[in-house]
Amino acid sequence: MIVALMFWAFAALAVAGGIAVFVVNSMARATYALAVSFVAVGAMIVLLHLDYIGVITILMMLMEMAIMAVFMVMFTGMNPALMPMDMTHHKRRSAILAAVVFALLAGAIFLIPWPARIGSPAADLTRSLGDAIMGSKMLVMLTISPMLFATIVAALVLANPRGRYDRYGDRLDRRTADGYPDPDDPIRGGIGR
Amino acid sequence: MSSPAAMAAVVLLPVGVAVLALAAASVNGAVNARAEGGAVRDGFAAPFRETARLVRQQRRTLPGADSLLWRIAGAGLGIAAVLQVVVIPFGAVWFADLPVGLVWFNAIDVLLWALWWLLGWGANSSWSLVGGYRFLAQALSYEIPLMFALTAPAIGAGSLRLLDVQAAQHSLWFVVWMPVSFLVYMASVVAFSSWGPFQTALGPDIGTGVLAELSGIDRLLVLGGRYAVLVAGAAFSVPLFLGGGSGPLLPGGIWVVVKTIAVLAGILAVRRLFPTVRPDRLAEIAWVIVVPLVLVQLAVVAVIVGVNRGAL
After folding, report:
1. Which residue of A has its CA nearest to B280?
2. ipTM of this predicted complex?
3. What are A's interface residues with B at a Cβ cutoff of 8 A?
4. Which of A81, A166, B186, B187 could be disulfide-bonded to A162 (CB atoms 3.0-4.6 Å)?
């Protein structure tokens, strides 16, 4: 009973947070309203006894939103991110799209013939999750990981304003008189490279 | 959690964290006073005087400040500290036995990213915002080494539950065969508390950054919350690396507190040995030197656990 009540309370919080994202007029508030929504979802997952996935969802979403706030403020045009602004655009098309997607998903809940449960959950769900990832689903992970990694590297290369030719000029092996690399950096890193 | 335990968690833990935080601030004040040639007794009293002053001080807010987020973040530090401490087993006594207690700690320390940045953002002051960004830049450097450092005790115990981690150390404390993880963990605790060599977010070069516009009770909550987070980090090192409640004569719960105080004293003692590290320099140190070191530590731990079929 109490668990069911908590589940619904978190569900309401998740939806309210999602709505708040588009109602508030500041980038920071929108970002952290989204964070609240995701944390509520994470708490719901914990209530379903999927402790690891629930807590990891909370962890990842908080981290993601902290980083996203930085990028939103950094890359949003002139400086509107620091001023009150409307969080919505293309309102009519978005509303139609949202209504159609909602109708599809909600309809699916009732129309899909859900299978009955077979067997019972493992005693230690975290362990069985780890076994699945490192065992039968290893091929999937091995395929996804390099692609994700390549995406990160590619994004960094695209976003990085200064490549190695900016740092070293035409001679990439440029050295100082005492044999250390001699990049043309505005700020040097912590280990003197 | 039974209801007496729940009551104790609600009353005992916040008070305990607050008392230890005040003690840490007091000792730190004394060390500062001694270094500056003042009276040590004044140093001990400094946090009490500051508390009395801030409680009476009127709260000041700049026009355009995002007070809601600012105040949430200020109050959040202390709450985050208690949320971390609540999953720590005190010997055979515990308040909340989470099957993934280790990941819980990690999630709450990521919450600190949000809190420190929001503190910088909410004030509507450039210097505060610079401080908030400095913290995030620093967080990018310490978080990955911290996550790997936390993985070592989990591998050693074969579990994310803190009771199991504590039990796996009954013959040998993890700090003995995971020294790199322990050091990285302690440095990260200091870093997520914005303290010691990692306090550029509050640096005097940016007019005390995040703290610049804080006044009255808000400032007290942040200054106290910062020490509370430090206490929580020190307390968490006990079940992770220092054998939890194991020790002769005294009950386990007392040993956890004693070890926490010892770790805190260590942090306070070595603080002055290190210069402040700028976040932009820390990034390269953390990613090029510390991450490989922690990975080697993890490999060593994994091989030992594999060969030994369990913790040493």
Report:
1. A189
2. 0.89
3. 26, 28-29, 32, 35, 51-52, 55-56, 58-59, 62-63, 65-67, 69-70, 124, 126, 187-191, 193
4. A166
